[in-house]
Give the backbone structure.
Amino acid sequence: MLGLERRLVFDKSDTGGGFFDAYPMFYSTSTSGKRNRLNKRYRAIIEANESIIQNKSILDIASHDGRWSLAAHFAGARYVLGIEAREQLVNQSRATMSRYGIPDGRVDFVLGDVFEELDRLEPGRFDTVFCLGFFYHTLHHMLLLHKIARLKPTNLIIDTCVDLDPDSTIVIQKEEVENETAGAVPDPGNRTHILVGTPTRSALESMLSMSGFSVKYFNWHGAGIKRWDDLVEYHKGLRVTTVATRIDSKLLQG
């Protein structure tokens, strides 16, 4: 029946184990490092997309503590570059790569504003771009997508919160930049806060289409997940994982 929420199931036979159990530092290097959450997200972000990660050059936007950069490396990425605006997270990322024996020159991190650092990169350098947990922490969605499109990646993996309004809208709210899980760069008129926007699915699809990308969603409810601890927003459709493919690259391959 329409309007009824899916029933959450917490099946304790599902231990929540997975990839990050081999790299447990990520369970403590961030406030968002919940075990079941990270391992299930790994399935959607990395495992489901190995074909566009293996032997590819990866750009990890807002790389946080380096968790997805490391995961991409072990999924066979040729090279990974992470961009992160918080100095303590860049330092933590570099220390974690060293702790887990990542060879020099395979995974690098730069400190800076994503919007500024994207302009410094050469088109064609990256095959796949990660935009994981960042798209709803900015109000400049189209500017971000245009800067990514300039780099001419074949694929863009986005994991973002979305609003459930059926219309093509963006819900604006204010975040404190001191919060590690919020936007990192404050607005010019307010040094402690930033305005951010959460798009609806329709808005997300429209923005990607206008930037030259097609969209395919990961089917969270078809992924065999039994335990939804710390994944409620995915269960309710309030967060999605997508692969956006550059349309002109499809035409060239066809």
Summary: Strands lie at 57-61, 79-84, 107-111, 128-132, 155-161, 170-176, 193-199, 213-217, 239-246.
